[in-house]
Amino acid sequence: MANASELSLKVQATLREKGPLIGKEIVFLYPTVSPLDIWQACFQTTDFLISHFASYYLRYDITRDDQVRLSPSILRDFMSFTLFGLQDQRDQMVERQAHLANYHRDISRKKLAVAQTAVNSILEQVTRDVRRKSCAFIAGDLSYYLAHDEPREHKASGEMIRGSDIDIIIVHENDLEDKWVDFMQAEMLSLKSFYLRHPDYRQEIDFVVKPRSKLMGQFRYNDINDKIASKIVYESMFLGGALSLYLALGDDMRRAGVDALIEQDFTHALDDRKRVIQTLLGKEMDMSDPDVQSLFFYSQERIEFT
After folding, report:
1. Which whole-number Å values give the CA distances from 99 to 71, 106, 107, 147, 166, in the listed order?
2. Which end of the chain is more exposed for a tag (fewer CB within 10 A), N or C?
3. How far apart are CA 262 and CA 254, in angstroms?
């Protein structure tokens, strides 16, 4: 591990020369030093102004026994959503943070436009009755305007894709004819392939089509699948179809008390984040240790940051 105080002084000189920087930009300037060492050096000193500009939301981490955790991960938060400057750079910090926040918002809006186009292309091909009995919404990074465009490899195909997934959920009334359910699933699969491989997009769309009855059952909030499905409704953003159905799903979720359970889990995840940060700051860490990695970032980020 690099000496934290010496590394902190180097980062301080870098900020003096270049102005406020986010974690990713600092890491880029020190390619032989691990991101964790740089993170420790930046947070073990009081010499820096530090500004966090992410919105935090709940996720369930299957790499740590379905533990509730906050997203962005500690590493993603450091790399993309934490700005460091010197005490006399406050005005520069404010200006830079505004530009960075707008940058992530712009990426999110572009990905939302892809999602909207995909959903509209399906809705235009179905009957009015199908549109009345179906709704589509989105969740994850995009619903918080935190999407990123870090290039990463799509595991199944080997294709390089651009940043955050586009997670689309389509819920339909229980009496919707099977032929229309099959049609929507087939169309979404075709769109997934198109947006993944088209060089102008390289976007990964994940989707699920399910009946309202299944979602109602998932509001029991019992196992990991229930919790993820419930959280998606809690944080979702409407895309298309029947707005009345979408609003009814939110009402069903609140009647089941799921919103309160999610908020309790968020509090637990926040407490855990505080504990983990203190652990990572308090002693020397080995970035090759899988347990340390799972504290610092999530499994799907390892290709991006290692």
Report:
1. 21, 10, 13, 15, 23
2. C
3. 11
Rounded to 5 degrees, what angle do the CA atoms 222, 225, 226 make?
Answer: 45
Tokens of 203: 């976007």
How far out from the chain centre does Cα 95 lie?
Answer: 24
User: How many C-beta neighbours within 10 Å does residue 179 have?
Assistant: 8
Tens-place pLDDT, residues 239-273: 999 999 999 999 999 999 999 999 999 999 999 99
How many CB atoms sit inside 10 A of residue 30's CB?
17
Q: What is the pLDDT of residues 32-71, one digit of tens each?
A: 998 989 999 999 889 999 999 999 999 887 666 657 889 9
Instruction: Please list, residue by residue across 200-238, b when 16 or more beta carbons sit within 10 angstroms of its beta carbon and e when fewer do.
Output: ebbbbbebebeebeebeebbebeeeebbbbbbbbbbbbe
CB neighbour list of residue 296: distance below 8 Å, 6 or more residues apart: 35, 36, 39, 73, 74, 75, 280, 287
CB 42 within 8 A of CB 8: yes
Token pair recorded at residue 216: 């109602």
CB atoms within 10 A of CB 93: 18
